[in-house]
Specification:
The protein is an alpha/beta fold. It is built from 22 helices and 14 strands. The chain folds into five domains: 3-32 and 135-162; 44-117, Signal recognition particle alu RNA binding heterodimer, srp9/1, CATH 3.30.720; 169-347, Rossmann fold, CATH 3.40.50.300; 353-422, Helicase, Ruva Protein, domain 3, CATH 1.10.8.60; 433-621, Peptidase M41 (Methane Monooxygenase Hydroxylase, Chain G, domain 1), CATH 1.20.58.760. Bound molecules: adenosine-5'-diphosphate (ADP), magnesium ion (MG) and zinc ion. Residues 442, 446, 500, 517, 520 line the site of zinc ion (ZN).
């Protein structure tokens, strides 16, 4: 609104007020219908959804209800419930009640749900006249508010105050229902956390000998490894309420909102102790203060300060334990890790093969598997999968099984689901033609190098069926629990990645090579560069020339400093190019020497569209000898 309009509105207000009052006094009793709105009547807001009384009881049983406000002498209520399908978001729902039943009150008490009964207030006689006046007063009040609102910019102080008053967006589960048995493959983390359950259940065991019970535990690990699940399991085992909130929800546009949420959260937690507070993605608030470009973020710092204050503000034996999760412990503010705060760190790592097997056991409990399907073989096929990936895998496989109208999940569906999770949705195969042949040569190139270079992982299958972005794919089975990668292996991987381009180059000529190798070449560049700068595998010697922290905005450093001089960085580029060039020459020569084998493999691949690893090797072995791959197979 511009200045002129604002003036007009301001002038109109008193005039309107006077006119309305005059109208009221003269003959305005027709307006009697407006009722006094007060807290004794449940807000009839159309935005609030409704549910039946029976449903409400179900919700209570499922532990979804967080608070109940009863109105009109128990005739209706506004319920706050969390919706697990919507990230545990809190919803307000209206319910019509059969009256103020003592059973209901007892249930609410038992479930530890906070409730409030707003007594019906009968309006005294004198209020009738006030009621008449209320309409104009409300109208004028509304106008004033409107004018004030338009005065301040959106997002200005006027609005921030309103947001500050909104309820904190945290979820509370009275009973998580998750037990340690539901979390598998992270036995070390579980052992560390079992003690936390005892802290919550029998604090006196520790306090009686003078031990200080830790307040905070930090779970560190990549996404999907089960951090949230572990936190819920602790609450479930200890039988205490679970408060959860995500770090990113603290951080709002408006300064002070995050801090007020933290205060609210701790207030509610103290009312419900013993309990567990879970803060997901704590790095969103807990980042090193004063970092980042533009002088840091006031809101975040205030929120973090509030969190630290609250943590210092209660005693360890008050029955509240705070568990936070992050996958970036390196960026956290050191103040968070001080004794008395998150002084315990538990790392939650992606599972090894045994871990994967036990996670698969947990998640296949409610699935129908074919008798011949062994969970071991799935565990073996899924190195690098986290718990969440595995849960997703079994679910995808179950969906595929249902879609194919089968009675039980077989290895076929598992295989398809694994491919889909790694490489995306399957597309429809290309029709025969030049581009299909070119893709076939490209993929056979990868697979050939993968088979003939000893240090390369063996080929699992080659396919021309597109998936995700890829037009064709060559799958390799990586060595299972290999922690260290040798120089020979890195070189082999570079050669394998170059195999596709080399085959295009040799078969179709330099002018015909395609963009299809773009992804391969990027990989090659990054592997070769790391060999030089991080792993000291070039003749620049065993020096680390680059840190691995490249995120400008997240870290403690304002900007990534380059530790190397111009001369060195020229040398690095030179070495990288040298490595790639050597590898490419070697790759091209392998392709040239096996042209006959490549041609026949391409014929078969174009016809069959997929060749599995064993078949590929048996065809190839009729042309040349294949080196034996060294593998360590873990026994489960
Ligand atoms: P994070 O919090 O570490 O990102 P979550 O705990 O949210 O991971 O895991 C997501 C889902 O993946 C869980 O609900 C569970 O179904 C499954 N999951 C993850 N890790 C495990 C595990 N170790 N054992 C069993 N299930 C797991
Ligand atoms: Mg999580
Ligand atoms: Zn490729």
């Amino acid at each position: 609104m511009n200045q002129r309009w604002r003036l007009i509105v301001l002038w109109l207000l008193p005039i309107g007020m006077a006119a309305l009052l005059a109208w009221q006094i003269l003959g305005g009793s027709q307006l009697n219908t407006t009722k006094p709105t007060s807290a004794t009547v449940a807000p009839r807001n159309t935005a609030i959804s409704r549910m039946s009384y029976g449903r409400f009881l179900d919700y209570i049983e499922a532990g979804r209800v967080t608070s109940v406000d009863i109105y009109e002498g128990g005739r209706n209520a506004v319920v706050e419930a969390i919706d697990p399908d919507l990230d545990n978001r809190v919803q307000k729902i209206r319910v019509d009640l059969p009256g103020l039943a003592p059973e209901l009150i007892n249930t609410l008490k038992e479930e530890g749900i906070s409730f409030d009964i707003h007594p019906p207030r009968t309006a005294p006689q004198g209020l009738g006249i006030l009621g008449n006046l209320l309409f104009p007063i409300l109208l004028i009040g509304g106008l004033i508010l409107l004018a004030r609102r338009s005065n301040s910019m959106p997002g200005g102080p006027g609005q921030a105050m309103q947001f500050g008053k909104t309820k904190a967006r945290f979820a509370m589960e009275a009973e998580t229902g998750v037990k340690f048995d539901d979390v598998a493959g992270v036995s070390e983390a579980k052992q560390d956390l079992e003690e936390v359950v005892t802290f919550l259940k029998q604090p006196e065991r520790f306090t009686s000998v003078g031990a200080r019970i830790p307040k905070g535990v930090l779970l560190v690990g990549p996404p999907g490894t089960g951090k949230t699940l572990l936190a819920k399991a602790i609450a479930g085992e200890a039988g205490v309420p679970f408060f959860s909130l995500s770090g990113s929800e603290f951080v709002e546009m408006f300064v002070g909102v995050g801090a007020s949420r933290v205060r609210d959260l701790f207030k509610r937690a103290k009312e419900n102790s013993p309990c567990l507070i879970f803060i997901d993605e704590i790095d969103a608030v807990g980042r090193q203060r004063g970092a980042g470009i533009g002088g840091g973020n006031d809101e975040r710092e205030q929120t973090l300060n509030q969190l630290l204050t609250e943590m210092d503000g209660f005693e360890g034996n008050s029955g509240i334990i705070i568990i936070a999760a992050t996958n970036r412990p390196d960026v956290l503010d050191s103040a968070l890790m001080r004794p008395g705060r998150f002084d315990r760190q538990v790392s939650v790592d992606p599972p090894d093969i045994k871990g994967r097997l036990s996670i698969l056991k947990v998640h296949s409990r409610n699935k129908v598997l074919e008798d011949t399907l062994s969970l071991e073989s799935i565990a073996r096929r899924t190195p690098g999968f986290t718990g969440a990936d595995l849960a997703n895998l079994l679910n995808e496989a179950a969906i595929l099984t249902a879609r194919r109208r089968k009675a039980a999940i077989s290895l076929l569906e598992i295989d398809d689901a694994v491919d889909r999770i790694i490489a995306g949705m399957e597309g429809s195969p290309l029709t025969d033609g030049r581009s299909k042949r070119l893709i076939a040569y490209h993929e056979v190139g990868h697979a050939l190098i993968g088979s003939l270079v000893k240090a390369h992982d063996p080929v699992q299958k080659v396919t021309l069926i597109p998936r995700g972005q890829a037009k064709g794919l060559t799958w390799f089975s990586p060595d299972d629990e290999q922690m260290l990668i040798s120089r020979a292996q890195l070189k082999a991987r570079i050669m394998g990645a170059l195999g596709g381009r080399a085959a295009e180059d040799v078969v179709f000529g330099h002018a015909e090579v395609t963009t299809g190798a773009g992804g391969d070449i990027q990989q090659v560049a990054s592997m070769a560069r790391q060999m030089v700068t991080r792993f000291g595998m070039s003749d620049l010697g065993p020096v680390s020339l680059e840190g691995d922290n490249q995120e400008v905005f997240l870290g403690r450093d304002l900007m990534t400093r380059s530790d190397v001089s111009d001369a060195i960085s020229r040398q690095i580029d030179e070495k990288v190019r040298e490595i790639v060039k050597h590898c490419y020459i070697e790759t091209v020569s392998i392709v040239k020497n096996n042209r006959e084998a490549i041609d026949s493999l391409v014929e078969i691949l174009v016809e069959k569209e997929t060749i599995d690893g064993d078949e590929f090797r048996s065809i190839l072995s009729s042309f040349t000898s294949i080196p034996e791959k060294e593998r360590v197979t873990t026994t489960i």
